[in-house]
């Protein structure tokens, strides 16, 4: 979070942000960062364990059906990013499926790492969905420990409709694997003579 702009003279907005943070199930230390330390919050995240993805997907489809919405085969309620789990839906998800996530308020200067495949959402105000006006810098990366999971996500994207924003392979996992192996082989060949000495 590289910038958080707080309008001057809008005390009511501060109360609204505090309420959003509290309703977001944030812990007491996080609330104190805002109320006592006067740090600038930019976004409220809810992050779930990757192992709970299928339960969350099933829950979102169930809620959509209850609301009379369709669940097309070539769409995915998680990848569509069309749902926000508010407090009542998060509570219901926990009660019915045993799934509970982590609430993280991202303050100015904070970095949030989201593990590969972990469903997540950011809560914001108004249309922009930020607690205050803010600028975030995001970077996707593939760590060696999560290549398998990233590859699995890429396979999930293939089943989305061709017009879906997540249909393309944004992570380029196959290219990452190819270049990692190519570089490793190049280093081994360059040091072949020193490796063969007794």
Automatic annotation (TrEMBL):
SMART domains per the UniProt record, alphabetical: JmjC
Top enzyme class: oxidoreductase
Identification of the protein by name: Lysine-specific demethylase
Cofactor binding, per record: Binds 1 Fe(2+) ion per subunit.
PANTHER family the record matches: JMJC DOMAIN-CONTAINING HISTONE DEMETHYLATION PROTEIN (PTHR12549), LYSINE-SPECIFIC DEMETHYLASE 3A (PTHR12549:SF7)
Cofactor(s) essential for the protein: Fe(2+)
Location of the protein in the cell: Cytoplasm; Nucleus
Keyword Nucleus among record annotations: yes
Chain's role: Histone demethylase that specifically demethylates 'Lys-9' of histone H3, thereby playing a central role in histone code.
Domain writeup: The JmjC domain and the C6-type zinc-finger are required for the demethylation activity.
Alphabetical list of PROSITE patterns matching this protein: JMJC
GO terms of molecular function: chromatin DNA binding; histone H3K9me/H3K9me2 demethylase activity; metal ion binding; methyltransferase activity; transcription coregulator activity
EC numbers on record: 1.14.11.65
Protein encoded by which gene: Kdm3a
Sequence similarity: Belongs to the JHDM2 histone demethylase family.
Record bears the keyword Transmembrane helix: no
Catalytic activity entry: N(6),N(6)-dimethyl-L-lysyl(9)-[histone H3] + 2 2-oxoglutarate + 2 O2 = L-lysyl(9)-[histone H3] + 2 formaldehyde + 2 succinate + 2 CO2
């Amino acid at each position: 979070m590289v910038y958080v702009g707080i309008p001057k003279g809008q005390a009511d907005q501060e109360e609204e942000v505090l309420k959003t943070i509290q309703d977001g199930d944030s812990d007491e230390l996080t609330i104190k960062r805002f109320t006592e330390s006067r740090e600038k919050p930019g976004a409220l995240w809810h992050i779930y364990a990757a192992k709970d993805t299928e339960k969350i997907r099933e829950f979102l489809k169930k809620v959509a059906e209850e609301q009379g919405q369709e669940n097309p085969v070539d769409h995915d309620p998680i990848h569509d990013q069309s749902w926000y789990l508010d407090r009542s839906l998060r509570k219901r998800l926990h009660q019915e499926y045993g799934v509970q996530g982590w609430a993280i308020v991202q303050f100015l200067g904070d970095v949030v790492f989201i593990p590969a495949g972990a469903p997540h959402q950011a809560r914001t105000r108004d249309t922009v969905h930020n607690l205050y006006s803010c600028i975030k810098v995001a970077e996707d990366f593939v760590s060696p420990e999560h290549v398998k999971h990233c590859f699995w996500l890429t396979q999930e994207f293939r089943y989305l409709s061709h017009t879906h924003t997540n249909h393309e392979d944004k992570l380029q996992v196959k290219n990452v694997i190819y270049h990692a192996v190519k570089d490793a082989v190049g280093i081994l060949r360059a040091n072949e003579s020193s490796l063969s000495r007794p």
